[in-house]
Design a protein that fits this description.
This protein is an alpha+beta fold. Among the domains are: 16-114, no CATH class; 124-198, 2-Layer Sandwich (GMP Synthetase, Chain A, domain 3); 265-335, no CATH class. Helices cover 32% and strands 19% of the residues. The chain has helices spanning 91-99, 116-127, 129-142, 174-184, 195-202, 213-216, 226-231, 238-241, 256-263, 309-320, 350-382; strands at residues 45-49, 55-59, 71-75, 80-88, 108-113, 148-154, 160-166, 187-192, 273-275, 278-286, 291-295, 305-308. It has a five-stranded mixed barrel. The protein has a four-stranded antiparallel β-sheet with strand order 9-10-11-12, with helices on one face. A three-stranded mixed β-sheet has the order 6-7-8, sandwiched between helices. A hairpin with a 5-residue loop joins strand 6 (148-154) and strand 7 (160-166). Helix 3 crosses helix 4 (174-184). The model is unreliable at 1-15 (pLDDT under 50).
């Protein structure tokens, strides 16, 4: 079985059948089972992606030979919609579980592969989306509704339009639907989205330099609170913790579990350490490396000592038994290395010595010239 390799993908050696490069890259999932013989025959369920981050799952009842990137016409209410196949085979069942689809009976079916006439209607409908969004914003403003229409998506046959809007509270848009239906002569569906979903639909780049997670692979948005930042010892600066959506960054949740596991190995912040030198209080900790810094003052950085968390737990156990170690550091206090003074590495008068050497060499040359002249003059007199 021949494997086709991706030319434009960062992961060299991956099968092109499993990748979605060249088609939809938003929410792309690499199908690592795409090259297994008979993978498409395991299930008739197919994942289809529409505009931006909207995806749906459909039955391939007609047993069409579908692959990633095929444009298909699927069942809609009313009419049909046009989308792109993004996954077939066994992994679709796992994607459905991840999407938390409760009622499997609501899954509709695929009609056919898109025909040229279907694509003409689809392109005509997509060309109307931007103007429709601008006009609908003005209509909502005239009606005095506190909402923002962020995007408009027309159905593939042009019979229906989905208006994505953002609002802080509940909005009575019954009058708005009537006005929009009269203005655009289509069936209207209003869909409320959050600020994170809007950022995913618009796209962009984060401060890390990579494309936004919500625009590339994230489907479910989990709430993020400041507790995740505190647990990772991050400064509670709203400008640094907020993302493009003006909410807390989703990536704050990525490493929370690892920090929670590592923080369990640290000593308590409330327990001071008693030694023969004095009492030390918790100052700061490097959670992942397991190093804890203690100070002799409760509020200031004074006589800081950094020790492993394991050593801090040993000292706490010794204090409970009534014993005090000589120093916090195991094996006695280490003498800190003196900072190297760059000015003392070489003599500051080194340039003057070179000048003196040049003077001595020049004097030797002058004496040699005098001797040569004297010898030449004696030879002339003898001749």
């Amino acid at each position: 079985m021949e494997l086709e390799y991706i030319s434009g993908c960062d992961d060299h050696g991956l099968s092109r059948k499993g990748c979605n490069c060249g088609h939809y890259c938003q929410l792309n999932t690499y199908d690592y089972l795409a090259d297994i013989p008979g993978n498409e025959e395991i299930t008739d369920l197919v994942e289809v992606q529409f505009k931006n981050t909207r995806k749906g799952y459909y039955h391939n009842t007609n047993l069409l030979p579908l692959e990633k990137g095929d444009i298909v016409a699927v069942e809609a209410s009313p009419g049909h919609d046009i989308g792109t196949v993004t996954m077939t085979g066994k992994l679709v069942n796992l994607q459905i579980k991840r999407a938390n689809l409760k009622n499997m009976d609501d899954i509709k079916r695929i009609y056919r592969k898109a025909k040229p006439t279907d694509m003409e209607k689809y392109n005509e409908a997509k060309a109307r989306e931007h103007d429709t969004m601008i006009q609908s914003r003005q209509i909502a403003k005239d009606l005095g509704l506190e909402m923002k229409i962020g995007d408009v998506e027309y159905q593939g046959d042009g019979n229906k339009a989905i208006f994505y809007y953002i609002a802080d509270g509940r909005v009575d848009f019954r009058q708005l639907i009537k006005v929009l239906a009269e203005a655009f002569h289509v069936r209207i569906e209003m869909k409320q989205i959050g600020a994170r979903q809007e950022a995913g639909r618009i796209g962009g780049f984060g401060p890390c330099g990579r494309e936004l997670c919500c625009a590339t692979w994230m489907k479910n948005f989990i709430s993020v609170n400041t507790g995740a930042a505190r647990l990772q010892d991050l400064s509670l600066n709203p400008q640094k913790l907020a993302g493009q959506c003006a909410k807390l960054k989703c990536c704050l949740n990525y490493e929370v579990d690892q920090y929670m596991e590592a923080s369990r190995k640290l000593s308590s912040k409330e327990i001071p350490l008693h030694s023969q030198e004095g009492d030390y209080y918790y100052f700061k900790a490097d959670i992942l490396s397991g190093m804890v810094t203690y100070s002799t003052d409760k509020h200031l950085a004074a006589n800081l000592v950094t020790i492993p968390a394991k050593r801090a737990l040993e000292i706490i156990a010794m204090n409970k038994e009534g014993n005090k170690p000589e120093t916090l550091e195991e094996g006695g206090r280490k003498v800190p290395e003196r900072p190297i003074d760059l000015a003392t590495q070489e003599d500051l008068n080194r340039f003057d010595k070179k000048k003196k050497k040049k003077k001595k060499s020049s004097n030797r040359n002058k004496e040699g010239r005098k001797e040569h002249k004297e010898k030449s003059s004696t030879v002339r007199q003898q001749n």
